[in-house]
Amino acid sequence: MSGSKRAKRNRTAGLKPLTKDSRRSSHKKSLAALMDWFLPSDQIFAKMKFHGNTSWSPRRLVLLALCWALSESRNLTDGFSEAAASCQTISGSSPVGTYQGFMKALVRWTSSFMKLMWPLLHERMEEIGGRFWRIGKWVPIAFDGSRSTAPRTQANEQAFCAANYGKGTRARYGKKKSKGLRRQRNKQHKTQPQEPQAWITLLWHMGLRLPWMWRLGPSNSSERAHVVEMLNAGVFPKKTLFCGDAGFVGYPLWSTILQGGHHFLIRVGANVKLLKESADFSLQKNSIVLCWPNAVRRGNQPPLRLRLIKVRIGKATVWMLTSVLEPAQLTIKHAIKLYKFRWGIEVEFRGLKQTLGCAKLRSRNDRRLLAELDWSIMAMTVAELFALKEQLAKKRLATDKTSPPPDPAKRSLANTVRALRYCLQHLREVPGPNEDLKTRLQNAVIDSYCRQKPKQARYRPPNPDKKPLGNPKLRKMTPEERKKLNEIAV
After folding, report:
1. What share of the chain is helix, strand, coil (3-state, %, to 5)?
2. Between 382 and 315, where is the model more confident?
3. 436: helix, coil or strand?
């Protein structure tokens, strides 16, 4: 059919002619449609008070910050130039014209933006989550911490380095350790000064495999204190089950979770002391124990009644404590499944550091560095959310309804970021067949081949500082403790 006949047929049917310019904007339209779904307007920022001279809109600043965080340029200024050009193409203008103005805006408003965008993020996750929003009866959220290295500038050292690093009486790294040899610190073996690091404490949805919210701080931050802060500041769905490794123990953290109406599943070891409530206590797969530290007991506070579970995962014997006392509500099989899902948060940290290049951050100013890290995590979250949305939408539109839904565990962060970066770099180009953004995000999954050899490194040097976790310490209640318990119960 000739071009004139095709145009005549389109006019007769009331269709607009498909021009070359409209085809070129498909990448731009796809990305703009995803942003319109995630952040449709400036309405969530309506209550914020900006300076009267502010000329940018919050939504466009968010778009610019996300494009900047996804840039693969090694220099922050080059990344800003690329992001400003992409923002110019997508929305018609860049909210900020200079890098310095952009960073000043981020330093000033990032913390306020995050508090408003986290609830919006949770709404979008629940909207598309489907059967992955809950695992069984629970909304499973894991927490863990990690560090990212910062440049050795004076500002970063003052903000992120511990003031008393290596000077404590119980410093574990006072000696250099090697196989069969211990060398004291001396003139020949001087220790290097502490490298500034930013601490990341992350809450992570285990079903959707998406970050929930996070806290940043210096290298000596307390990840348990960060979790308590997020528990007090955030709003969580009903029947939320928090899952953590052996570092997240203690009465303050566990009582905060229970006071919020939620439950937890935590791995424990020799770092936990528990009490046997009944005189005829016998260690079984499901045993009721008490967490009642001395300071809590002296303060006339009640103990925490918990369920102790002993299971076998792989070659290791694992002890877990849960506040779900009824085995029917959380079976041992389900607890093992949830704890295995918790490992995905380690993969999330690896993706942040390797795929997005945040193992070593680039900002030489501490406040700018925190803004860089905040928006890197948010960009990673939004990218994975876009990929999950398109992959679940592909399943709903599929003709074969018997095929299983896509597993979020199969989603590839590397392929997702690669698809978005390609789109941002080719906004004005014509996408070929199966090269549009939606198809690229739908295909952003890990390889499905069967691995013939393990990925484990050939050489794994022993870590002398890593000790076995051990078993939790159990003891019977003393008569004084039993009397105190009866008084509190009355």
Report:
1. 45, 15, 40
2. 382
3. coil
